[in-house]
Design goal:
Elements (H helix, E strand, L loop, with lengths): L5 H6 L15 H8 L5 H6 L17 H6 L5 H11 L9 H12 L6
Length: about 110
């Protein structure tokens, strides 16, 4: 079994549904749903930077860190959680983040 594409698959488990979604794939959104791009753990893997630490100094900058715990994303996460908790409990699956809460998810950014 391969782990290639595992991050993307967690957001889009059924790729056939993707064309039906109205998504504007910005660089930040693309980095978050792929785990590639301007995410420190990804850049560190290629030895481009010395360490994968997030600028918030609370852990490595991973996709999960950006979405669920980065101190620098508190305002964006607050808006995301507020939208979600109107009808369900936080946290929701990454797939549901894209399907139902894209407008709030797209505000998260890599640093």
């Amino acid at each position: 079994m391969t782990t290639k594409g595992a991050t993307t698959k967690s957001f889009f488990p059924n790729i056939e549904d993707r064309p039906q979604l109205r998504i504007n794939p910005t660089p930040n959104f693309t980095a978050i749903v792929t785990g590639h791009g301007n995410i420190k753990t990804y850049i560190h893997k290629f030895k481009i930077i010395e360490n994968p630490k997030c600028p918030c100094n609370k852990g490595d900058q991973t996709v999960d860190h950006i979405i669920y715990s980065c101190k620098l994303q508190e305002q964006e996460r607050y808006r995301l959680k507020a939208a979600i908790t109107k009808s369900e409990q936080w946290p929701v699956s990454k797939n549901k983040l894209v399907l139902k809460y894209y407008d709030n998810l797209k505000d998260l950014r890599t640093i």
